[in-house]
């Protein structure tokens, strides 16, 4: 932390701040500029209480120097994490592929699509049993019945299962049925849920919130990691901007940044990011080129009848074509599908 | 809903869409333009499944016509709601005033500040016992002990208590200790929590998410209302934008819009919206002029020692001065403090 | 400027940066933390070249300490500027009122509306003769003929005239016809135009760009001031955000911030900020309460026939009612209409 | 256009709107829903005046149906444009590569870097002689002297020259010295400048504004095209969002969208988009995978001494490595460097 004093602060005001800093157990380093005096706060402890010094009359601003995340930082581990989801590895040379419909709609629907995405090359089946819908009047998911259908799809195809958690109370059920638990964008800073998921060892597909900065996202990941669950896979799924021709704006710089700053694997969801079927393929290719460790893509064989997210779902043959294209990019960056 | 067909759609493609619409139980109204054919979808039922028609080859886009919220809409009630919080009314001529520190830090701190804000004119005491902090390494709140201190502050001052819920599991405790339960911005679309809070009758201070549109905010309010809790008070607390000199951007147009579109009372939080003490007073005045039914303001007598949000907290004498100024504006718009 | 070295930088790397800083003529202040070394750059000169030091291998980041604007800063003047527009003062106790249609459409239209807004209480007539329209196929303005009609409106009513400049080549004409020249949001960082306008003494109504931060806005104002024109009036007109129920998001915190940071008067445009007629009145009131020195409001007596911006135009009687309401707020904050 | 009437509109109110629509020369198509009546406006003419109907009492909203751009639309041409810049083609199988420093700083600097980027594989040299800087106190460019240095760099290396225009008055000079004229992000909606550039046939590198939507960007391109200059090359360079770890947010969905909606070539600027050297390479790869027709990359051999944009400049060897990586991606998508 650096405390910037206002121009014209008196020696007395500066000393008052210095002694407050020392009282909290930090060392102080004073630097006197032409117009401003700057107080460096030195020490290992959590420096967040220093933020409140900005409310002192003579203080102009308090500026953080260090990155605010810890356990998720690359420095903490020194090498990339490999995360195993029942035999599927995230973070290695091979790209992990998650596909399936937005919602589990029926036993027939999910098993049928599971076969289709498996045949196309997917490793993990996605499908929501508990749906966080914007409107309470929209389809909210089949709940436990949906989880059972997902398990049947797994038994028939061997695909691993990822599905979303929306309430802490569903945790035990989800741990039983799923191989990987998804935390959706709207719950990215639902810290109680993050702590609950952190108390299990179940792999977590952790989606960035639509207005969560990269730094905040990694601090949120620290909530899961600090509870003891190291199996966190980050997912960029688009952020909210003024652009209205796409559902969100896919932030691929964040993918490169997350891979620089963190040891955790990074997956991209081009379906939710764009909301437009024609854009899913080019964005899947671009995600691969940006360094993504995996993809999660919505696939539905009858998108016009989908209960949710039909407009952004690829049909199985389009998904196959998409993987073919992604495969070429993966090879160009030293990865493989 | 309106379905816009692509230019050059064939009669057969148009009829295919028409018959799909009818299969879902809606009536159809066809309109043939110079370049495009447009299909109006008519009927009372939830039209969200129609969105998926955008995935049909010949469909260019699907455009919603009606506002997507229902129970929270002004039309649904036809008059403004008055919501009672243990004798304090929101939505009437009198402005409801909520004040207090960001966090409950100790018995002494909360009781002391309670007396100060009561003396200045506040009706309700705020103070977080469960804190949703961006970093897991920051102070997380005193939890139940904090609730007890809040109750002691109520007993000593008569102020009503509002405090934040962060997990469904804390609901019973909060119902016992608080007069009003706050849902924070990060949980605005935590639908499981909204449903849980909706099953009580306890008044809810419901904060808009930092990237939640006004329409989505009212749909989220519908989650609480549709579970049976009519006591929802909306709170504008700033949205996330590119502007970096304030913590968020206070969206006062939203206050006027919410009052036009909804029967629910609207409160403004100028403290979190700006994050800058000097801006709290002018924004409190502006909120009043925009039509707000209440204010929630952070007050701390030693902001430089606050565990959180010190930089945006008013000191008690500043809070008093703020209310004096707000009072003049209230009178000018036919309200009173 | 503060240069933050990466953790683990060697003494040699630190000294390399120190000597580069000294070579540019600044003094250096070294501060060694637990993990990072920080180099303070001290001196009066423009420090922007220091930004490029971020490209050095051992440098983690370069952080500016001082605010980047100068001539527009409050410190530079030490008191509020009063700016005279042919007898109408901006920045004093009295609120300056600008009103009129988006575009000059005909002699009859502008003269008619001029009488109406004059009668309601406006001091200055607005009306575009050169229109910066999003589409080249939309009405582009009557150009010099429009300026003549504005002059006739002035002759008939005594209202001063403000109209927009879109090209440097029109400067002489505009100086001849107008009392105040408007720079629109899309030209906020058209620095060539700012310099041209700065070489006249004609008062400038300078609109904030839709994605211009407050700091950038004041730097842009410095372009005009540093060419020798002190008559700059800032205008907040809404910024671009994700919210889609309003045309832009009115940023009233910026109004309070601009008045704290700068000596220049600040005007608010609630018409363009919201794009919705029902919101103009509450936002005009809120702007006044936030400390605005003036208002610019679109008024049209036949908004449904307006060539542009009909949906946000008040009718003359609504404008009168708006001023009546604003007047009450002005009184409450020690101002008058 | 579709006009949505308010619920409960009377037959008389509906007929009033219908007759206003007809008076403007359009046909009308009425559609009566359960709650709302919808009026389709049919006809070939510019429908922007219809927007103002939203100001009628009984009208709820006016919704555009057609895309608002014309000459830049893919439908208008039916095939992709190939644009020739003195022998370098944009839009074909081969990727066009633009590189060089942010600013021309001296004859030696620009000629030296020209040789370096030429040797690495670039086709076109970039370098600003007129610089649109945020602060008037920053380096503003060498102006005509800079143009002369660029010409010398061309004579020595054979590289074509692209440089930015900031004022209409410089047009003749720029046409003389440059092979391609750049319009920067801040001038994306400086329509007077667009018209001026449209009156030449000189190829234009047209950068998207930082808060310009894709639809607005193509309307702005229509300004250039409709003046008679068909040689427009679009450039995505990042948009402004809340994310603060990158200078802007690169919007690669926009690249795919622009290629779907328009016949014009699309170039990506990963340097300005990210502002961070480490992110330039992954974003260059991702741009290629998304379908970009070219890249513009900042290169400086002494970035720490650059007058501007040092932190985001690649060194020549990094640029060479970047092209090697991009080359692999290009091959994977059927293109070549």
General description of the model:
The structure is a homotetramer of 337-residue chains. With 337 residues, chain A is α/β, with parallel strands linked by helices. Chain A has two domains: 2-63, 2-Layer Sandwich (Alpha-Beta Plaits); 74-332, TIM Barrel. In chain A, 35% of the residues lie in helices and 18% in strands. Chain A is built from eleven helices and 14 strands. Chain A has helices spanning 11-23, 74-77, 107-120, 144-157, 171-177, 191-198, 214-226, 252-261, 270-274, 277-290, 316-332; strands spanning 2-5, 27-32, 37-42, 59-63, 83-85, 88-90, 96-100, 124-126, 160-165, 180-183, 204-207, 232-236, 266-268, 294-298. In chain A, strands 7-8-9-10-11-12-13-14 form an eight-stranded parallel barrel, surrounded by six helices. Chain A has a four-stranded antiparallel sheet with strand order 2-3-1-4, covered by helices on one side. In chain A, helix 3 links the parallel strand 7 and strand 8 (124-126). Chains C and D meet through helix 6 and helix 7 of C and helix 6 and helix 7 of D.
Quickly describe the structure:
Chain A folds into 2 domains: 2-63, Phospho-2-dehydro-3-deoxyheptonate aldolase, domain 1 (Alpha-Beta Plaits, 2-Layer Sandwich); 74-332, TIM Barrel (Alpha-Beta Barrel), CATH 3.20.20. Chain A has 11 helices and 14 strands.
Q: Tell me which protein chains meet in the greatest interface and how many residues each side has.
A: A-B, 55 and 55 residues
Number of strands of chain A: 14
User: What level of helicity do the residues of chain A show?
Assistant: 25-40%
Known CATH architecture of the largest domain in chain A: Alpha-Beta Barrel
Task: Report the major sheet of chain A.
Answer: 8 strands, parallel, barrel
Taking pLDDT < 50 over at least 5 consecutive residues as the criterion, the unreliable ranges of chain A are: none
Oligomer: homotetramer
CATH superfamily of the largest domain in chain A: Aldolase class I
Q: What would CATH call the class of the largest domain in chain A? A: Alpha Beta
What number of domains of chain A? 2
Compute the CA-based radius of gyration of chain A: 23 Å
């Amino acid at each position: 932390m650096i405390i910037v004093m206002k121009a014209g602060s008196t020696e007395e005001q500066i000393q008052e701040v210095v002694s407050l800093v020392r009282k909290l157990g930090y060392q102080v380093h004073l630097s006197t500029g032409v117009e401003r005096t700057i107080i460096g706060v030195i020490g290992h402890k959590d420096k967040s209480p220093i933020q409140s010094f900005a409310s002192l009359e003579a203080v102009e601003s308090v500026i953080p120097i260090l990155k605010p995340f810890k356990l998720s930082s690359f420095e903490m581990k020194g090498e990339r994490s490999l995360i195993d989801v029942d035999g599927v590895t995230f973070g290695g040379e091979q790209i992990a592929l998650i596909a399936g419909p937005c919602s589990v709609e029926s036993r027939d629907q999910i098993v049928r699509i599971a076969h289709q995405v498996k045949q196309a090359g997917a490793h993990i089946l996605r499908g929501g049993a508990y749906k966080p819908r914007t409107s309470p009047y929209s389809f909210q998911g089949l709940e436990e019945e949906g989880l059972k259908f997902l398990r049947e799809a797994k038994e028939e195809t061997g695909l691993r299962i990822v599905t979303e958690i929306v309430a802490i109370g569903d945790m035990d059920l989800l741990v039983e049925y799923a191989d990987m638990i998804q935390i959706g964008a709207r719950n990215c800073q639902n810290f109680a849920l993050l702590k609950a998921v952190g108390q299990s060892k179940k792999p977590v597909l952790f989606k960035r919130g639509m207005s969560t900065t990269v730094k905040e996202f990694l601090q949120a990941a620290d909530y899961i990691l600090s509870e003891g669950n190291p199996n966190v896979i980050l997912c960029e799924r688009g952020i909210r901007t003024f652009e209205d021709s796409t559902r969100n704006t896919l932030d691929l710089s964040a993918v490169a940044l997350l891979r620089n700053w963190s040891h955790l694997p990074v997956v991209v969801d081009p379906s939710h990011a764009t909301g437009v079927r024609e854009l899913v393929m080019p964005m899947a290719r671009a995600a691969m080129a940006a360094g993504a460790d995996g993809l999660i893509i919505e696939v539905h064989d009858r998108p016009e009848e989908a209960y949710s997210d039909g407009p952004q779902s690829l049909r199985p043959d389009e998904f196959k074509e998409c993987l073919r294209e992604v495969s070429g990019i993966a090879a160009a960056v030293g990865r493989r599908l």
